[in-house]
Amino acid sequence: MTKIIISTILTLSSTLLYADNLSYTFVGTQASIDRFSGTTAPSFGIKYGKQADMWRTALSLNYAKNANDSLTSLLLDVNRGVLSKVFKDFQAKPYVGLSMAMMSHKEKKSNSGYAYGLNGGFTYLFDDNIDIDLGLHYMSASQIKSMNNLTDVTLSVHYFY
């Protein structure tokens, strides 16, 4: 199962990150409120990705901590812009996508595993170099013994170069 998930992540990231010659690379930072294992914790992370037409693929490394729990995740998001004709004259652009993550949850002891799920949100374009993203993730983490799912609301800032 581990090999299948890693192969899928590598295949998706390599084909979507480099498939289009009109792609734009970005780096960013993000802050979120994560809900896992019946607790809520602030999370901070860094992000790297590519945008090609309606598709955006991003890898992010995130860390959430509250008094008793911590959660570290390496997350792959594959998103596609939706309703492009409706929002063509607006700076805000909606998207939906899939998420896969490798996570380590530490409560009394450490548990590691994989999570997968859906995401969606809005990206607001400031100019050709900067955008902000307000998104929601819902992921099933049934492979991690100490948690069933993860829900987060994330605010990201991206710089395109």
Folded structure, characterized:
The chain is mostly beta strands. The chain has one domain: Porin (Beta Barrel), CATH 2.40.160.20. It has one helix and eight strands; from the N terminus they run H-E-E-E-E-E-E-E-E. The protein has one helix at residues 2-18; strands at 23-36, 39-52, 55-65, 70-81, 92-106, 110-125, 130-140, 149-160. Strands 1-2-3-4-5-6-7-8 form an eight-stranded antiparallel beta barrel. The mean pLDDT is 83.
Which characteristics define this entry?
mainly beta, eight-stranded antiparallel barrel, single chain, 161 residues, Porin, 65% strand, 1 helix
Outline of this structure?
The chain is built from one helix and eight strands; from the N terminus they run αββββββββ.
Residue share in helices? 10-25%
Which architecture per CATH?
Beta Barrel
Tally of structural domains = 1
How are the strands of the biggest sheet laid out side by side? 1-2-3-4-5-6-7-8
Described by the principal axes of the CA atoms, the overall outline is elongated
Indicate the structural class. mainly beta
Radius of gyration, taken over Cα atoms and rounded to an integer in Å: 16 Å
Distance between the termini: 36 Å
Question: Count of helical segments?
Answer: 1
From N to C, what is the helix and strand string? Answer: HEEEEEEEE
- Biggest sheet details: 8 strands, antiparallel, barrel
The CATH topology is: Porin
Q: Give the low-confidence spans.
A: none
| The level-1 CATH class | Mainly Beta
